[in-house]
UniProtKB/TrEMBL annotation:
CDD domains: AAT_like (cd00609). Its EC number is 4.4.1.14. Its cofactor is pyridoxal 5'-phosphate. The lineage of its organism: Eukaryota, Viridiplantae, Streptophyta, Embryophyta, Tracheophyta. It comes from Helianthus annuus (Common sunflower). GO terms for molecular function: 1-aminocyclopropane-1-carboxylate synthase activity; pyridoxal phosphate binding; transaminase activity. This is 1-aminocyclopropane-1-carboxylate synthase.
């Protein structure tokens, strides 16, 4: 009875990434009401700096109460019809905030900005603008599981993975780019571009200058687009420093070229300000045709004027944004350290990272077999027995089994401590089991060996035993 679009399975809802959320919903951890429940560590939410936003709202009550600086009501103005161009005051404040995050090394023009209901909508809108159904975008693995839904489902576009691996810390290489391009050609897919997340979800690392240069060279040579999803740009809490693709274009004097026109940024306040519920996203493009097309499309997913007004006031308060950004980074760094050290104590290693709301955790040594079946088996154990919902690498299309994304900023410090205690008991239990099974294997091997010993060894040892008995 329903359309093929809604009944096809390219929505991706059946991935373990979303299944884990469902399991959490059925049995959510609560320190008092449900202390044995599942702790949600599969959600990249930033809850570390709400107090800063709340105290701003307390000190500046007018915008949330539909009032201007003269305390007069602006309710009617905000409630009436808005066009899809957005409020100029908000767009100006947002581009300045984007520059501030990048240390003011680049400036953004509000005329090149298109407002969207979150980065989800921004990514899909860009797909609608740049790709026909059946065209492909290349994406380095591991990647954000939501891309399967956001980029493919309604647009009919395809994703071809650029396989990155642990040997070089999952860095993008020229050969991996070329291989992905060839693979798309083999599948008769027209490649329209590359999409990267910088800093990366799920790796928590920012792209190096070398990788950024490779990407610009690649899209230039192949005459394709580059989308840089920079939704985590304000979460960089430690070195190496972060470079936006716009800075690379500027530094290479490519700003007013055809190449720059094919580079588009996706941004959102869901992570940096921790406001995913407000649905504030944007596309920044150097191509006016893309800006114009995306603006028209944005009428399917606008940000309410009320939200735009509130955020234009918050982001225009430069004293606030400066202190928010540095305090938020400090808190993220602290949390990141807590998780890394907590896991280290149990013998679990994380990929070295400098950004994001999660760690990319290496649990290969805990797999029963070096396969994705082994990974799912371990994941189920962690969800149901340990009580932690984490995201298996396979849901991020990682090509090596045994990696997991573990989020650290969507819970209190106390809850993270409980999670670490659970991991510790799990690791102890696994170690005990390993010793037992190794012991058993040894016993089996010995008994097998004695059964298959050649006759002369048996006779010799028998003889030796006799001698020993005689001696006694
Ligand atoms: C890389 C990436 N892009 C886009 C999104 C979607 O963000 P939004 O809540 O702004 O739609 C996410 C959310 O986790 C993400 O990690």
């Amino acid at each position: 009875m329903l359309s093929s679009k809604v009944t096809c399975n390219s929505h991706g809802q059946d991935s373990s990434y979303f299944l884990g959320w469902e399991e959490y919903e059925k049995n959510p951890y609560d320190e008092f009401k449900n202390p044995n429940g599942i702790i949600q560590m599969g959600l990249a939410e930033n809850q570390l700096s709400f107090d800063l936003l709340e105290s701003w709202l307390k000190n500046n009550p007018q915008p949330a109460a539909f009032k201007n600086h003269d305390n007069q009501s602006i309710f009617k103005e905000l409630a009436l019809f808005q066009d899809y161009h957005g409020l100029p005051a908000f767009k100006n404040a947002l581009v300045k905030f984007m520059s501030e995050i990048r240390g003011n090394t680049v400036s953004f023009d509000a005329n090149n900005l298109v407002l969207t209901a979150g980065a989800t909508s921004a990514n899909e809108t860009l797909m609608f603008c740049l790709a026909n159904p059946g065209d492909a975008f290349l994406i380095p693995t591991p990647y954000y599981p939501g891309f399967d839904r956001d980029l493919k489902w309604r647009t009919g576009a395809e994703i071809v993975p650029i396989h990155c691996s642990s040997y070089n810390g999952f860095r993008i290489t020229k050969s991996a780019l070329e291989e992905a391009y060839k693979e798309a050609e083999k599948q008769n897919l027209k490649v329209k571009g590359v999409l990267v997340t910088n800093p990366s979800n799920p790796l928590g690392t920012s792209l190096s200058l070398h990788e950024l240069d490779l990407l610009v060279n690649f899209i230039s040579m192949k005459n394709i687009h580059l989308i840089s999803d920079e939704i985590y740009s304000g979460t960089v809490f430690s070195s190496p420093s972060y470079t936006s693709i716009m800075e690379v274009l500027e530094n290479r004097n490519l700003m007013n070229t055809e190449i720059a026109k094919r580079v588009h940024i996706v941004y959102s306040l869901s992570k940096d300000l921790g406001l995913p519920g407000f649905r504030i996203g944007a596309i920044y493009s150097n191509d006016e045709l893309v800006v114009s097309a995306a603006t028209k499309m944005s009428s399917f997913g606008l940000i309410s004027s009320q939200t735009q007004h509130l955020l234009s006031e918050i982001l225009s308060d430069k004293k606030f944004t400066k202190s928010y950004l540095s305090e938020n980074r400090r808190r993220l760094k602290e949390r990141h350290e807590m998780l890394v050290k907590g896991l280290q104590k149990t013998g679990i290693r994380c990929l070295q990272s400098n950004a994001g709301l999660f760690c990319w955790v290496d649990m290969r040594h805990l797999l029963s077999s070096n396969t994705f079946e082994g990974e799912m088996e371990l994941w189920k154990k962690i969800v149901y027995e340990v009580g932690l919902n984490i995201s298996p690498g396979s849901s991020c299309h990682c090509s090596e089994p045994g990696w997991f994304r573990v989020c650290f900023a969507n819970m209190s410090e106390e809850t993270l401590n409980v999670a670490m205690q659970r991991v510790q008991s799990f690791a102890d239990c696994m170690a005990k089991k390993n010793i037992q099974s190794r012991h058993q294997q040894l016993l089996q091997r010995n008994s097998r060996r004695s059964k298959s010993l050649p006759k002369w060894v048996f006779e010799l040892s028998f003889h030796q035993r006799e001698i020993t008995a005689d001696e006694r």
